[in-house]
Amino acid sequence: MPPNRRLTVLSGPSGVGKSTVVAELRRSHPEVWLSVSVTTRKPRPGETHGVEYFFADDAEFDRMVGSGELLEWAEFAGNRYGTPRTPVLERLAAGVPTLLEIDLQGARQVRESMPEALLVFLAPPSWEELERRLRGRGTEPPDVIERRLDAGRVEMAAEKEFDLTLVNTSVQDVCLRLIALLAGTPEV
């Protein structure tokens, strides 16, 4: 049986490039398992239950929280999101490199319930670059961008709570370092 691996958690402020890094990691290293979150939000066009998310109603989500089925959960923009515990534990027990991409609140919950997890903070090269990325998306109104920037200030201040920081100057470099961490090999 493969040795148990340590759970790796990737977190950082909105706009830092977490989803871009995770997409590249999944493309180049399909052996890494990325947890699929459960959410109370409605599916968007093209989303499939069990692929992008597990979709649940409020009652089902409440039941999952109450029975301890979620490793972590948080509310964002009026919807709740959480990480199902059992699939994570099964992958870790099988020795599968396991990654969670979650927010600061979720990372703190994982630290409480699984102190052996490796918490990785993805940081922007600078605050100005983070602001440029958020504004440059062109997908959200100015008030939403300002809320994300306010949240980003709080998230940046929490960097010291993480085991290590990777600065996202290159998606490929961040992926190489994450793979080394997930494999349990010395950092590159």
Describe this structure in words.
The structure is a single chain. Helices cover 41% and strands 20% of the residues. The chain is α/β, with parallel strands linked by helices. It has a single domain (8-183), classed as Rossmann fold (3-Layer(aba) Sandwich). Helix 1 crosses helix 7 (171-183). The mean pLDDT is 89.
Distance between the termini: 27 Å
Q: Tell me, rounded to a whole number, the average pLDDT.
A: 89
**Bulk shape:** globular
Total domains: 1
Rg from Cα: 16 Å
- Tell me the number of strands: 9
The H-and-E topology, N to C, reads as EHEEEHEEHEHEHHEH
Main β sheet profile: 5 strands, parallel
What is the fold's blueprint, element by element?
Layout: E1 8-11, H1 18-28, E2 33-34, E3 38-39, E4 54-55, H2 58-66, E5 70-76, E6 79-84, H3 85-93, E7 98-101, H4 104-113, E8 118-123, H5 127-136, H6 142-157, E9 164-167, H7 171-183
Parallel strand pairs: 1-7, 1-8, 2-7, 3-4, 8-9
Antiparallel strand pairs: 3-6, 5-6
